[in-house]
Amino acid sequence: MNCGFQKGSLVHTIMRISFSAFVAALLIATTHSTAWATGYGLGLSYHEDKTEITESNGSSVDRPSYGTSSIGVNLVLDTAVAKRRLFNYRLSLGYERQTFDYPNDEELQYGEVAQRITVGNTFGFAVAQTVRLRAWLGPRLALGYAFDSNKSADYYNLNLGLAPVIGVNIHLGPLISLGLELGYDYSLYVTSEPGLGLTGKSGTRQGPFLNAVLFFRTSEDRWQAPEKPADSHVQTPGIFVPQ
């Protein structure tokens, strides 16, 4: 089976799906701002990955493994940055620049830098919530598409990753928070790298990542202390009975 990519159509499709998903979530959050206490953010990301190439036809590979480091920017939407709630959903749309590292190989057959589009879906569960911060953890499911083209060769790959993530949102003001995330990504991918003679091959990628996001929250997205029980002679001491 040929898993090679048609550059123009695939890039446009990935960009269209990514942008559409982000805009749809943005519209839903804006329209239902009362139900969704939403934060909108702009972030920076750093990733380090080690890639292992797995040949589908059993042939040898000149570079069976290589490393990449990535720096990027992200648009982020979060359904509960500060609000006292167990669950939050975080959607991110990112653009990254990848730098390749080949051990003992000084002459590359294609560009040292590639571009990457990412869409991340994080499902967070609060472990600590105060007026100053919200700490959470949960899984992240991400889709990435990397591409590069120069006069020597082309490079494209599509990956799907799953990562455990821990995060903390530090509230800097009434409607501003700083979000920090640390995770470790495990990805499967298919690639087309004519410069290496690889077309439609698969592999694995794994590595840590760090994200920092400055959030601007809606008025509904704020921490509220639990309501104190009203004084009552019939209420059992130490037990909160909703009124």
Task: Walk me through what this model shows.
This protein has 243 residues and is mainly beta. It has one helix at 7-31, and strands spanning 39-54, 65-78, 87-101, 113-129, 133-149, 154-171, 176-193, 198-217. It has one domain: Porin, CATH 2.40.160.20. Helices cover 10% and strands 56% of the residues. Strand 7 (176-193) and strand 8 (198-217) form a beta hairpin. It is elongated, with a radius of gyration of 22 Å.
Can you give keywords for this protein?
single chain, about 240 residues, mainly beta, Porin, eight-stranded antiparallel β-barrel, 1 helix, 8 strands, about 10% helix, disordered N terminus, disordered C terminus
| Poorly predicted runs of 5 or more residues | 1-8, 106-111, 232-243
The total tally of domains equals 1
CATH topology: Porin
- Tell me the β content: over 45%
How would you characterize the largest beta sheet? 8 strands, antiparallel, barrel
What is the strand arrangement across the widest sheet?
Answer: 1-2-3-4-5-6-7-8
The overall pLDDT average reads: 77
Shape: elongated
Question: Number of helical segments?
Answer: 1
The overall strand count is: 8
Structural class: mainly beta
CATH top-level class: Mainly Beta
Cα end-to-end separation: 64 Å
Assign a percent range to the helix content. 10-25%
**Order of helices and strands, N to C?**
HEEEEEEEE
Report the C-alpha radius of gyration, rounded: 22 Å
CATH architecture annotation name? Beta Barrel
